[in-house]
Amino acid sequence: MTINESARIAPKLRDPAWSRRVFWALALLVLMWPMLVLTEFKPWVLFEGDSLKPTLKFLGDFFPPKIESEFLWLVFRETWRTVAIATAGIALALLVAIPLTLISVRVLSISALTGRMSPAASIARQIVRWVLILLRSVPELIWALVFVRVVGLGPTAGVIAIALTYGGMLGKVYGEILESGDAHATTSLLRNGSGRMQSFFYGLLPQNAAELTSYTVYRWECAIRSSAVLGFVGAGGLGQQMDTSMKMFAGAEVSTMLIMFMLLVWFADLVSGWLRRNLG
Fold it and tell me: How far apart are CA 202 and CA 13, in angstroms?
């Protein structure tokens, strides 16, 4: 092949979208720079002398982890409490999400079979959607801070916080899953005189059960992580014990609880994977 022939073929080997990619990469940098300045993002501060020395000392206190039998029993007990908070919170979230979902889903509306939903049903559906927005727009950490002051320190505040926030999340996603599926069977049941619940259980639920189950299990896994974080505001569980140890500068205790928390997340991932395979 001659040099002239190579010159004619080479442009074909170039990426035709490289110029657009370079443009959007530069545009992203231009947009990100003011955000980094606004957030005072200065990672190099971690390597300055005033910051590096206490950081290394703090990390050095993590080793070796504390493995005394009495402390390990305390960690196991708080870990189990963390799982219990997450599970109870998700159970209550389902009690919130399922009724609101059934009200907000358009495909289950009998009045919508004629093409336009009745005003009363439309208003009720919109109110429910606003309630779901309210529930999920407030982070569970804020709910926990509120209920710690209402019911006091302990797991109750964490359970209620997870139930409210996750109830809003589950209700929204459940509604989207049900409305995005094939509504032919459900509509046929409604047109032939079936009630809303019959149409849901025999028409809408079977074809969406796998996706609903998968998302619910994923949220339970997220709730386990959240329940540990909620402990830092007094909502009980492993996070509250970790907060106490950190305030006392007990690095060995914190190290043990971090290891336990990683094992807990790993276990939750295994359980959620097993549930998806067997229930989906």
Answer: 55
Residue 172 tokens read as 């929204």
C-alpha dihedral sign at 169, 173, 175, 176: positive
Instruction: List C-alpha distances in Å: 155 to 74, 147, 224, 264.
Output: 16, 10, 13, 18
Least confident among 33-42, 105-114, 215-224 = 105-114
What is the residue extent of each domain of the chain? Answer: 69-279
Torsion sign, CA atoms 266, 268, 271, 273: negative
Q: How confident is the model at residue 117 (pLDDT cuts 50, 70, 90)?
A: low
Token readout for 179 is 């409305």
pLDDT at position 88, please? Answer: 93
d(CA 244, CA 248): 6
pLDDT of 251 higher than 70 = yes
- How do residues 49-74 score in pLDDT, each as one tens digit? 777 777 777 778 788 888 888 888 98
Query: How confident is residue 26, by pLDDT bands cut at 50, 70 and 90?
Result: confident
> What class is the 69-279 domain?
mainly alpha
Length of the chain (residues): 280
- The C-alpha angle with vertex 275 and arms to 273 and 280, in degrees rounded to 5, equals 105
